[in-house]
Design a protein that fits this description.
The protein has 16 helices and 16 strands. By secondary structure, the chain is of the alpha/beta class.
């Protein structure tokens, strides 16, 4: 009897010890999964401790963007749109909790495509001017001229702090499926348009491209040398690439429509009618202006500056440079007000394309005879744009700067120069570029940002 009681007591003690052991194990397990700072402090305070207000302001578009499906909200609305600290904890079970915030990486600096260097590339050019006759004007196809040195074609632009993807026409069309890219600007904008058409097609004729200029009113008027622009649709992806000539980006209004020699009101505070009329059809817009802003061009075109619907009487705008800057700021401001109405539209303002005349201008014996690539250096080190007017105009707006000035400044050997189709002597063209050439790089930068 005594033995049975003793054995029963030992059994109860064993059971009690087992229960205590299990409870102790559970407590330690819970301790390991919930650190003291997590149980004592609210999650919001945890975020305050780990990230100071300065960090919050500084760290936009960071590691959290890559971890959450609504990262685009962060880019659009700023750091305040980040998920709460509780969401961070629940979404990062696969990572160590002590790394969630304490090892929050610094923001990766946005890519400055204008800062970098030119490097030799045996895969260049991206197309042949011999084959791109369907899109490329003969006067810009330097291999059709008497020029014999084409070493300038063998270089590509490499930004300093980012990789630029290799341009492929098929990939470009895929990214732009069902979309429209519009260039609006002067003849340098036309060069960029023709360059892109050659790049997409590889410089080969394509029956799969439809001329739809008539849908944008781009038809050749009676007596005109050419239409005001062109629009082509790639049937395979329903992608449209168009160009509209607007050298000043201003609305031009004939003062006497019945007089063929009438002057035109050049409304500095109104965007070109084409922009206002067709903006809703565009998905990507690239604007440029600059080289037509001189007295000779205004007089030849019979343009008279207007502001507020009347001839300009503001002395501050009397200078051509001031008038140009006023127009650029006006157009960008107008475009910025339109972008919320067209949330899918990406708008770019391209900086001015540099001229390389030496010992005179285009009409006074100026020339650009250098054929040695990168004779003045191959690298852009500055962070600021070499076109401060354009840079200032887009600052604080949703319009992006397509900064090509400094990188193009290094390529003085790439101009048309003295070469022409008929090899006749005359004035040199140190403004427009040989194609293939520098404008291809401008399009590669656009491609990288799509």
């Amino acid at each position: 009897m005594k033995g049975g009681s003793f054995n029963g007591l030992r059994g109860k003690q064993f059971l009690l010890a087992l229960i205590i052991l299990i409870c102790t194990t559970i407590v330690f397990w819970a301790w390991e999964r919930t650190p003291f700072v997590t149980t004592v402090l609210p999650q919001e305070n945890q975020l305050e401790i780990k990230l100071s207000p300065a960090d919050v302001t500084e760290k936009k578009n960071t590691y959290v963007e890559e971890k959450f499906s609504h990262a685009h909200v962060v880019r659009e609305q700023g750091f305040d749109a980040l998920p709460s600290s509780s969401e961070i904890t629940s979404s990062n079970e696969e990572t160590r909790r002590d790394e969630d915030l304490t090892r929050f990486p610094m923001e990766e600096k946005g890519c400055n495509y204008a800062k970098g260097k030119w490097v030799a590339d045996s895969r260049r050019p991206l197309y042949s001017s011999f084959g791109c006759k369907q899109w490329l004007s003969e006067m810009w196809a330097c291999r059709l001229t008497q020029r014999t040195d084409f070493s300038y074609e063998g270089f590509r632009w490499q930004p300093e702090n980012c990789e630029m993807p290799e341009f492929k026409g098929s990939l470009f069309l895929k990214r732009m499926q069902g979309r429209t890219l519009a260039f609006v600007g002067d003849s340098l904008g036309r060069q960029q348009f023709q360059s892109l058409m050659c790049m997409i097609t590889g410089g080969k004729e394509s029956p799969e491209v439809e001329d739809i200029g008539w849908k944008y009113g781009l038809v050749k008027a009676r007596g005109a040398v050419r239409p005001d622009g062109w629009a082509y649709r790639f049937l395979s992806t329903n992608t449209t690439i168009l160009y509209y000539w607007s050298a000043s980006l201003c609305e031009l209004e004939p003062l006497n429509i019945s007089n063929p020699a009438t002057e035109y009101a050049m409304h500095l505070d109104r965007p070109a009618t084409f922009l206002r009329q067709y903006l809703h059809r565009f998905d990507v817009l690239v604007l440029n202006t600059g080289h037509h802003w001189n007295r000779g061009k205004l007089k030849a075109n019979r343009w008279v500056m207007y502001v507020g619907g009347v001839p300009n009487n503001n002395r501050a705008l009397a200078g051509i440079g001031s008038a140009k800057n006023f127009t650029v700021y006006s157009v960008v401001k107008w475009l910025d007000t339109q972008l919320p109405k067209h949330p899918k539209l990406k708008a770019f303002f391209r900086t001015i394309s540099p001229r390389h005349f030496v010992n005179g201008d285009w009409n006074s014996g100026g020339s650009c005879d250098n054929t040695t690539p990168l004779a003045g250096g191959n690298q852009v080190l500055q962070d600021k744009s070499s076109d401060p007017d354009a840079e200032g105009a887009v600052e604080g707006t949703r319009v992006k700067l397509l900064d090509i000035t400094a990188l193009s400044q290094l390529r003085d050997e790439c101009h048309i120069s003295r070469y022409s189709i008929k090899a006749t002597p005359g004035m040199q063209d140190c403004l427009h570029w040989c194609l293939p050439g520098v404008p291809d790089t401008w399009n590669e930068i656009i491609f990288a940002q799509l």
